[in-house]
Amino acid sequence: MKRLFVLLAALVLAALAPAQRPLTMICEATFPPYEYHVRGGIDGIDPALARIVAACLGRELEVQDMAFDAVIPAVSTGKADIAASGITVTDERRRQVLFSVPYVQAAQVVVVRQGCDIATPEALRGRRIAVQSGSTGDLFVTKTFGDPERFQNVTFAITAVLSGKAEAAVVDQEPARVFVAGSQGLAILPEPAVCETYAFAFAKERRLLCAQVDAIFEAMRRQGTLERLLERYFAAGRSYKQDKAALAEALDTSDLLAEVLADEALRARLAELAATGAAAEGGEAVGAWQRFRETLHLNFVAADRWLYLLRGFGVTVEISFFAVLIGLAIGFVVAVIRATHETQGTLAVADFLCKLYLTVIRGTPAVVQLLIIYFVIFGSVNVSKVFVAVIAFGFNSGAYVSEIIRAGILSIDRGQMEAGRSLGLGYLSAMRHIILPQAFRNVLPALGNEFIVLLKETSVAGYIALMDLTKAGDIIRSQTYTAFLPLLAVAAIYLAVVSLLTCLLGLLERKLKNG
Length: 515
Ligand code: GLN
Hints:
The chain contains 20 helices and 14 strands. The chain is elongated, with a radius of gyration of 29 Å. By secondary structure, the protein is α/β, with parallel strands linked by helices. A hairpin with a 3-residue loop joins strand 2 and strand 3. Strands 8, 9, 10, 11, 12 and 13 form a six-stranded mixed beta sheet that branches. A three-stranded parallel beta sheet has the order 5-1-6, with helices on both faces. Residues 28, 31, 68, 85-88, 132, 135-136, 154, 172 line the site of glutamine (GLN).
């Protein structure tokens, strides 16, 4: 009886015990052949290697996609078990994460338009260079030639070269080969800018997992499976020109996995690690206050990083200010046209155009409009990016402002217009002197709200390599690999500006009320 009870209890406990959660791997998945989206998920060299690691440890694998400059901060703060994103081993990064043994030799190469006069990496001095924000290409160019144009990922950096926004891009070799194969008129310089190695990265205290991955990579190197896996993906990437479907489906690597799993020596090594290694996990103790002070120094004082925030703040204010002006101008015109059409029945064509504008602008995200204006509308002309952003956000805001003002106009009693007209004022001057001032006062709170939204909306300006406030935080984060402080600083600055704006609007409202 007692034995039966114990057995039952054990069964219940086993059922209640949490199932082993999957091993999570993070990457920035627009980086073929290392990681890219395929039908039904993410594949590439890193996911394939991580699948083998997970299988060796008897775990499932979950692959997540995030911005590259967030990958190292995320893994070092425990958001994922493994960061595997074609990550180059550097001493700076070693301070934040543990690296496995390298699994591949890689390089940063220079991508130019065919027939361009840049022939060697040295010739990049003084040129407009595009990079992926936070990559080793970015670090190399920043150190050697000064601030480059920083884009979200390799695709955008190469698109910038293709569309003439930049003269060259410094990016990772194999992804560059895939993109160059996939587009026309680009070339890669034969001489690489820097040679480097890639490895998996882990949070500092994950020493056991790191040792397990080391054991697996070393076994794979010994077996030759690592070499074969790399070759298989490289070949798919390079044949992309002839065969666009080469990267559309996940590659089959089950034969390699079977070979790794069958390796006796590896199995013994992993068992040994599991038995002795668990004790090795756990971080070294550094005082919290001391750690905080160091991080503060690293993020804002060292290398004058606060300057990024200052300059970014200036750009954000500049874009927002001019966009508000453009938005107001467009908003007034559109609102008057539409209100006139509604009340007088005239201006049918203009009204139709305004509606079209409202539909398109309100129906698409601001960041998409920004990218279209930058890469398509101003594609082949060389305009300042601040100007592009002002236009994009101004036109975007105009749509919302116009609806607010139209509501204001319609809220004014019709009798007022009639009174004005009977005093001998024309329609437009009655509108200007009687209706609009009152309408403006009524909608001021709603307008203020729109300006606040606009200010924060400009935070996507980083997509066109503009260094606004948000991007400044991203750049700091990508250099220091710390997640919290740059974000908190950026948030605090936005909050301060918005509070100030709210205050000013309150003052204006009170003033208008009194006279
Ligand atoms: N190898 C480069 C780096 O580590 C870029 C990697 C990537 O974009 N995924 O910085």
